[in-house]
Design goal:
single chain; mainly alpha; DUF3456 domain-containing protein; DUF3456; about 210 residues
């Protein structure tokens, strides 16, 4: 099955072959997998987004059961329920497949939703009637790249390793500590580099990396 990395492979190998350059690894072809900081950043971002969506639900739910259905069930607000956490976690790593690689960027912002500048240019040429032959069908251009599909797997592993930390934040620190700080800095990335958490996409003309206030 073709993916976007296959497309890059086709593009780059044509150039490399014409110049007799030896290709030894995926890194030679521009494939750069996400590091642990980048994975944690995206996981925290997506989970926070899902929690914000489910937090808008003001339903009151009933929990527990009784054999004779006489004893009333316990009622609790959905916003403060375990059900909300479970539903927010369910499939959260699948959201990573909505991301693309923006190879024109060098830091963690290279992982972002939306079409990359490279593919905007290619699609723009096609829209103008220019024949662009990449050796694969047009409908496969926007399939998730190897970096993205691998990040989904990385996300699932990191999530499994840090479920307790997420639950601790959900019940005790939600609203007072940023999820990225609690999950990543204090747990998943403890005593390691967490600088990617503070990298933000810069607007044109803006200098330096924006910092998120803690």
């Amino acid at each position: 099955m073709f993916c976007r990395t296959t497309l890059y492979f086709l593009l780059i190998t044509r150039v490399l072959t014409s110049h007799d350059v030896e290709v030894k690894s995926e890194e030679d072809l521009g494939v750069k997998y996400a590091n642990r900081c980048e994975v944690c950043k995206i996981l925290a971002t997506e989970l926070q987004g899902r929690l914000e969506e489910t937090g808008k639900v003001h339903d009151v739910i009933e929990i527990g059961y009784s054999l004779d259905d006489v004893k009333p069930k316990k009622k609790t607000k959905y916003q403060k329920s375990e059900l909300r956490l479970i539903e927010s976690l369910d499939g959260v790593c699948e959201k990573i497949l909505e991301y693309n690689i923006h190879k024109e960027r060098e830091d963690s912002t290279r992982f972002a939703k939306g079409m990359s500048q490279t593919f905007k240019t290619l699609h723009g040429l096609v829209d103008k009637g220019v024949k662009v032959d990449l050796g694969i069908p047009l409908e496969l251009w926007d399939k998730p790249s190897a970096e993205i599909t691998h990040m989904k797997t990385q996300c699932e592993s990191l999530l499994e390793e840090n479920e307790d930390a997420i639950e601790d934040w959900y019940w005790k620190h939600q609203g007072s500590i940023d999820l990225k700080i609690h999950l990543c800095t204090k747990h998943a990335l403890k005593n390691t580099d967490d600088s990617c958490l503070f990298e933000e996409l810069k607007e044109k003309g803006e200098k330096g990396k924006a910092k998120t206030e803690l």
